[in-house]
DNA sequence: TAATTTTGAGTTATCGGTAACACAATTAAT
DNA sequence: ATTAATTGTGTTACCGATAACTCAAAATTA
């Protein structure tokens, strides 16, 4: 491993002089600067960022924690966050909690021990409170992404879960559906609660009764509660449409339906939150409330960087980004038998 | 920032004793161990991993560099790599080069200055040679993923690009297509070269002529060469099917076709490499050669960890993982007019 | 020409840990 | 009871960088 001392020796100067050349600080004569530069290149010198961070107490690394790396919604966020971080010269440390509290904890520990300068944090749910409080305790700036956590005051970038849900359900109502099931994430997650609210609001605004037996709570990351679906389908008055609270749930639900020999949308309509951008470009199918994922990432990152770089702590900001209703093939007007 | 010295002082011991408690090394009486532990908890102590890495000359961080974070093929790789790294207790630093040489360079610099213990490297192309050589020069172990780089001897995990391509094209030939276009990645990328070879092989094995005017080279990440597509379609004897060399190219091609009012598969068939797992589960459409992405990641990571941990340098290994031909709606038997 | 300022370095201490060695107090062995 | 071994803990040096201070030589000013 080449260090500044190796460079210093070979160039016949002190380590401090090498450091000054690297950082363009202090006064250095053009002659020594050139000589040091040449030796650095000859020896393929790369500064040790850990040593530097240790003394500077700054890593110039930001962390992005997402909850599902195979979900295009989150990877698009990642792209946006990365682009924004790069623009400001920060390096980015990705983490993927897989909607798992324990993995999230591992990543928080890693973040803390790495002493990153800030975190863009998509929480797994309300219990992430503990992790965010840990960040606060250690004075690590963060911005909360996609899901609000009660008890945490911070900058936050959110979607319009309630309105988006209402729009989706009203679309279904508008094309004749009356029995609409909700397959939702855990009530421990703010977006799931709001989407539930939007679902109810759409019903009451349209004078429809709400049947709680049509509402199921599972995990956002995947749907595999076959018995719950079975119960829905065996219902004396079964749903004619399903609102899956996110794209991954829609995947699971449609898969399960197909295994039971049911076709979407012929036998049952399905709508959900979040788009599958690439795939839908190929073959538009799902009716969705599409959220501006890239903006989630880039705006969130901007807020984070502002917070890090603005000395006087400014007040918290809350951005709510609207979703767009995209009506496609998976929702079909109800044909009364 | 709490350090071992703070702990040491409050517990009335030396810093070294604290270090021993943290690492479970050396001999410590049960009494002091307890006392130190208690103070650590009271002060919410988190070890500074940079200080530790600096003295140990080991970071216990591995890096995964992928070329497109919004491509489900790569995110599935990431999931596999992450799981494998976690099993061995390594932390994972993701990087995303976006198929861009300059970004790849940035990440390599970051990898070098972070002194990670090893890299799982999906190169952007043959010119990545320079970056891999830099890793070699600095003795950073790495495993090459998905694309081979001429001039580099290393462990490598690949797909069966040639055979996969041949199977896809033979499928098209089998259902009557004779004029098959190839929309390929840059010839600077090994998989693109091999898929090209497979394409040619399928033709020659089946006694079909090859028309080079049906072959286009673009960038794997997205297709936006409208004029090239235009030329294809204006061809006196236009293609009846298109083989897009990866999933992202298929997206771009199908979008462009639709803008021109052409339907897949009615007007033209499209097949490609790499699946869109979630989306295809919802609505099977694309005929693909599906690669075992998760295995790419987990096996690659296993090779990397073995290489790092096995003292005597063992010989290089080359894993070639077969792809699976999944015939779906986007390829249709040719109906002669 | 003497006094002052500027320039171009070098020295030392420090960031937060750990390895290697040292050493007093017990405990065990002879 | 003396010697040897073990146990528990402290000291010092170092990992690779940088901040703060120092200082001789050169340049500038009076």
UniProtKB/TrEMBL annotation, chains A, B:
InterPro entries to which the protein is assigned, alphabetical: HTH_LacI (IPR000843), LacI/GalR-like_sensor (IPR046335), Lambda_DNA-bd_dom_sf (IPR010982), Peripla_BP_I (IPR028082)
PROSITE patterns attached to this UniProt entry: HTH_LACI_1, HTH_LACI_2
Protein name, per record: Catabolite control protein A
One Pfam family cited in the UniProt record for this chain: LacI
Gene Ontology molecular-function annotations: DNA-binding transcription factor activity; transcription cis-regulatory region binding
Keywords associated with the record: DNA-binding, Repressor, Transcription, Transcription regulation
UniProt source species: Paenibacillus sedimenti
Domain HTH lacI-type: from-to ranges: 2-56
Keyword Oxidoreductase assigned: no
């Amino acid at each position: 491993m080449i260090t500044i001392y190796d460079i210093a020796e070979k160039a016949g100067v002190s380590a401090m002089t090498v450091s000054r050349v690297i950082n363009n600080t202090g006064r250095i004569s053009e002659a020594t600067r050139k000589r040091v530069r040449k030796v650095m290149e000859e020896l393929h010198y790369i500064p040790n960022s850990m040593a530097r961070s240790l003394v500077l107490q700054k890593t110039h690394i930001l962390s992005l924690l997402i909850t599902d790396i195979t979900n295009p919604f989150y990877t698009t966020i990642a792209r946006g966050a990365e682009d924004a971080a790069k623009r400001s010269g920060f390096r980015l440390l990705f983490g993927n909690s897989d909607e798992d509290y324990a993995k999230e904890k591992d990543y928080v520990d890693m973040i803390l021990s790495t002493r990153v300068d800030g975190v863009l944090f998509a929480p797994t749910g309300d219990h992430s409170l503990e992790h965010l409080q840990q960040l606060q305790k250690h004075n690590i700036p963060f911005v909360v992404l996609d899901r609000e956590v009660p008890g945490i005051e911070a900058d936050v970038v959110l979607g319009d879960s309630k309105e988006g849900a209402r729009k989706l359900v009203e679309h279904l109502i508008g094309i004749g559906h009356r029995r609409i099931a909700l397959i939702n994430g855990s009530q421990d997650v703010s977006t799931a609660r709001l989407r539930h609210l939007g679902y109810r609001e759409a019903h009451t605004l349209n004078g429809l009764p709400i049947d709680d037996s049509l509402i199921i709570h599972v995990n956002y990351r995947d749907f595999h509660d076959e018995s719950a679906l079975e119960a829905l389908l065996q219902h004396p008055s079964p749903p004619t449409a399903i609102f899956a609270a996110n794209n991954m749930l829609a995947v699971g639900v449609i898969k399960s339906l197909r295994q039971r020999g049911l076709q979407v949308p012929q036998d049952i309509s399905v709508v959900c939150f979040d788009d599958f951008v690439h795939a839908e470009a190929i073959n538009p199918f799902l009716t969705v409330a599409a959220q501006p994922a890239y903006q989630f990432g880039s705006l969130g990152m901007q807020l984070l960087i502002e917070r890090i770089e603005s000395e006087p702590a400014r007040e918290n900001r809350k951005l709510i980004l609207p979703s767009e209703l995209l009506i496609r093939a998976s929702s079909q007007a109800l044909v009364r038998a």
